[in-house]
Write a structure and sequence with these properties.
heterodimer; A: 49% strand; B: 126 residues; mainly beta; 1 helix; 8 strands
Amino acid sequence: MQTNNLAHTKMDDLVSEFYHGWGSEIEQLLGTWNNVNPKTGQISHIIMSSQDDTLLLHAFGKLEDGTKDWGTTTCELFSSNVTSTEIEGFICHFNFDFMRVEIAGNMKYGVMVIQSYNTFQDGSHRNNYFCREFFCKTNS
Amino acid sequence: MKTTESTYRNKLSQYMGIWRSSYKKSRLIEEFTFFEEEDAMKISIKNSAESFYQNPWNVGSITPHGYTPDSNDIVAFRGHVKMDDMEAFLAINENKGLLIIASYLCFKDNDPRSDCFVREFFYKVS
């Protein structure tokens, strides 16, 4: 297949070959990831699991007393370029009635870096905000 | 009412204990311990299994640093560890619960090994 004929928006969208699978094992992402900041007011921990080759993210928000279970959502996987089969990041989102949380995650030397983009939809005039925090598999 | 010194000491106490590398295949340090000895902050270091430096580390000295000269927030540490064959300068900074250590290693005398730099991430275990 002439891959140069593929639709693209920039040079790095093009590939010389097609890659169908992920080279790095999804298992490296699975398990419980705890926020390394004990004083966080964001996500306290995340449980990553898989089902039929789909990565699932289960998040828990930090409350003054305990945590709030956000439920589970599916992740879309990313590598660092179109020819790489290494899983380097993922995106997913949670849609609550009053707000939407977009999550972009990436791996760095065993640390899961989670960026959350928080959008309020309730007309409360709270500013949308962005946060970046670090998670480790602290039970391993 | 807390004095500046006691506030500083309280902030220091949250750093004391064991810190482990986030990366299972860490290049140098698997874990380290911050502890207090004779009113001074110290560090003891355990090599990773795959570390290119396999000799035991001596206990090193640690100096805390604030963000500004007039603040008592601790955001970084400076460390020195001296061994017979190598000296390490450790530039340590905190970022949202992670400690990031940039290690600058200098081998002594006529050791043919290159002086090198390693940057690794650590989370608190206990």
